[in-house]
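Problem 12. The chain below contains 302 residues. Write out its predicted structure in token notation.
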Amino acid sequence: MIYQLLLCFASLVLDVMAEAGVGAQEKDLEIALLRQQLRILERKVNDKSQLSRPEKLMLVALANQLKDVSQNFRDRLQKCLLLVKPDTLLKWHRELVRRKWTTQRPKVGGRPRIGEELETLIVRLARENPRLGFDKIQGELLKLGFEVDRSTVRNVMRRHHLPPAPERGRSSWRTFLKHYRAQMLACDFFTVETIDLQTLYVLFFIEMGSRRVHLAGCMAMPDSAWVTQQARQLVWHLTDCPQMMRFLIHDNDTKFSAAFDNIFASEGIEIVFTPFRAPKAKAVAERWGGRYAPSAWTNFSF
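Solution.
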């Protein structure tokens, strides 16, 4: 910090000299820079140590003044410097700037933090009342005798990872899958290549809880009518299963038509559409179709 003050003082002295008409020209600054180096050399006749920090600061200050008035700064600096290279001098300047910004501390201000008891009350209100937003929580606290700003309520909820009211009352996709995994089906296609390089599309259903796979059928060019017929046959088979399914997850493929969904809806199975371009929404089906389907295909025949 003291060296930064010395640099500011040296720059101030040179600015005052420039305003007074002393050293305002390039040649005057060059002469001052050369004289400073000569004084350093005179002191270093018997002392072979490196340049001290004040000596470096003075050279940097003179170089800064030369930069402000000179158009060919690098050429001038190359001619004037005898002890060090221009890149070394610029490196010293960058180090001074770096030290300046790393030693400065941010100003501490703002309101004092609320008490732990009040913060616990805000978190409890937010968790027990998912529909209450920042303003309503502020109003409820005001009824209890606590004057708290809206931004304070928001900051407390952010610290405890509590989303705003529209998002706080919703169940996450992970929670939904975990809760209803045993009563959930997912369907998708995977492809295989025949020996004559013909692509076949295989429709399969997988139970999310038990990972039991139902291979519905295969076709070279499946359409919605064929997919609907395979759904009818699967529903007949599911009636014999001990665990009743409640949800069917599939993407927005046009082959899964309204007739396809109505077949499962008639059995009390709710259709859940995955978001667009979100394969992880039915990651179990995607992983089985991409990794295990080719090997499983060899063990089944239709």
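Discussion. The radius of gyration is 38 Å. Students who got a different answer should revisit the alignment rule from Section 12.3.
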